[in-house]
Design brief:
The protein folds into two domains: 9-145, 3-Layer(aba) Sandwich (Rossmann fold); 149-212, Arc Repressor Mutant, subunit A. By secondary structure, the chain is an alpha/beta fold. The radius of gyration is 17 Å and the shape is globular. Strands 2-1-3-4-5-6 form a six-stranded parallel beta sheet, sandwiched between helices. 34% of the residues are buried. The chain has helices at 18-29, 43-53, 69-79, 94-103, 115-126, 134-145, 155-165, 170-177, 181-195, 200-212, and strands at 9-14, 34-40, 57-61, 84-89, 107-110, 131-132.
Length: 213
C-alpha cells in the first residue's frame, strides 16, 4: 500500500447521504495519518468547508442532488486547486470517470470497494498521483491513450496556458480571472504535472506552440 504523508492529512467527506458519510468516517478515523476534518451534504456546504478548513483532500460523491460531484469537482479545481479531489461512485461508467478527470479529479473509486482500497486511493492522491479502481483503470488507460496532452487539461488550466502564451505573468493572469497569485501558481504546477513538463521555459514553449496550431 502507498504510504500516507508523514504529517496528518485533513479530509472532508462530501455526500448527500448521512449514512454513507458515517460509514466513511468509521472506515477512515482509525487510519493513522488521516483526519476527517468535516462533512458536507451538498455543494454549498462543501465549498464553505473548503474555504474554512483548507483541507488536503475532498472525498466526493458523484451522484449528489443539486450540483453533482463532477460539477463540484470543477468548482473545487478552479477555486481550491491545492485541494485534491477523489471521487466516490456506485457507477463504473467510463464517461463519468472521464468527465471527473476533465473537471480536475485525481481519482475515482467505487463505493463498494474495500476500506483498504479507499485508503490506498487516498494515499496515492495525496502523493500527487492518480488512482482508479481496478475495473476502471484498464479502460482509463485505453481512453487516455486516445487523448492529446492538451485534452487532459481542465477549462481553467487551458485558459491559464493560453494566457502564458500571451506572455502574461502569474500576477497578470490572477488579475484577469479574479484569482489569487497562489491559485494561479498551483494551476501552473498542475498543468506541468499533466503535461509531464519540468521547467517554466518548457511550459511556456508548449503554450506558445499550442496557440500556433
Amino acid at each position: 500500500m502507498n504510504a500516507l504523508p508523514p504529517r496528518s492529512a485533513n479530509i472532508i467527506l462530501v455526500d448527500d447521504h448521512p449514512l454513507v458519510r458515517d460509514g466513511l468516517r468509521l472506515r477512515l478515523e482509525g487510519v493513522p495519518g488521516l483526519v476527517v476534518a468535516g462533512e458536507a451534504g451538498n455543494a454549498e456546504e462543501a465549498l464553505a468547508l473548503a474555504e474554512r478548513l483548507s483541507p488536503d483532500l475532498a472525498l466526493m460523491d458523484v451522484g449528489m442532488t443539486g450540483m453533482n460531484g463532477i460539477a463540484l469537482a470543477g468548482v473545487f479545481h478552479e477555486r481550491f486547486p491545492a485541494v485534491r479531489v477523489l471521487m466516490l461512485s456506485m457507477h463504473d461508467n467510463i464517461e463519468y470517470v472521464m468527465q471527473a478527470v476533465r473537471a480536475g479529479a485525481s481519482g475515482y473509486v467505487l463505493k463498494d470497494s474495500p476500506a483498504t482500497e479507499i485508503v490506498h486511493a487516498i494515499a496515492a492522491v495525496l502523493g500527487n498521483r492518480t488512482y482508479f479502481s481496478a475495473g476502471i483503470a484498464s479502460r482509463m488507460i485505453r481512453a487516455s491513450a486516445l487523448q492529446t496532452p492538451a485534452e487532459r487539461l481542465t477549462p481553467r488550466e487551458s485558459e491559464i496556458l493560453d494566457a502564458l502564451a500571451e506572455g502574461l505573468s502569474s500576477k497578470q493572469i490572477a488579475e484577469r480571472y479574479g484569482l489569487s497569485v497562489r491559485t494561479v501558481e498551483t494551476h501552473r504546477l498542475n498543468v506541468k504535472r499533466k503535461l509531464e513538463i519540468e521547467g517554466q521555459a518548457e511550459l511556456i514553449k508548449f503554450a506558445v506552440e499550442r496557440r500556433r496550431r
